[in-house]
Amino acid sequence: MPVHNVHPDGHSNASFDLLESQGLLLGIEVSIGEALAASLNSTGLPIPQPRSGAALVDTGASCCCVEESHLISLGLQPIDQTEVHSPNGNRTQNIYLARLTFPGTLMPTLEMPVVGIQMNQGNTISLIGRDVLRYCVLIYNGPMGCCTIAF
Amino acid sequence: MFEQENKAFEERKVELLKLCPGKYAVFKGSEFVGTFDTAQTGYAAGIEKFGNVPFLVAHVVEHKRVAQMPALYLGLIHACS
User: What is the ipTM of this complex?
Assistant: First the structure.
């Protein structure tokens, strides 16, 4: 089982306060799935470059979501819709099939449905929710200011 | 979006729930493409058949879950920074 130790700023001597203030952030690249890449390739169309940013591991989120403007800019089309619970009532959001990679980690590449949402969170372009966490062991080590994720 | 596809899915839902619960059913308009073990394989089948256009990859479950992401919608992401 690959084990990945996460320090908030990428260094083992990170300030212990960073994990508390930032939460568990992972570098992420969002790209199109293999099937669409193969289809574009066969028709001679360019494959869009992955969108990079940070993903926040959010145990309160039931599913993974990605900033929708990035998904649209990749040329992805919705594959379904879902209701999302919000303080103002449920809202309908599109679901896309996207490929998520976590550069510099041992975490596996995921190709899965993600909810497209308007995050407006700067460099944080994704939330990693419980639909992914159900497949891994996550240890939040507050005193050491780091986390361990094992898939 | 997906009005026709959702209607076609609802019409087959009882049958699909009986035959292949938990799988993914692909529809384009009222056309039923088939069922697949994962959303990824259903998506691949839809891309191969229709190209990069919207088509429905529906999870064969009795009720769809309402997604929850409270920190986002309560404005609590990076609330300390």
Answer: 0.89
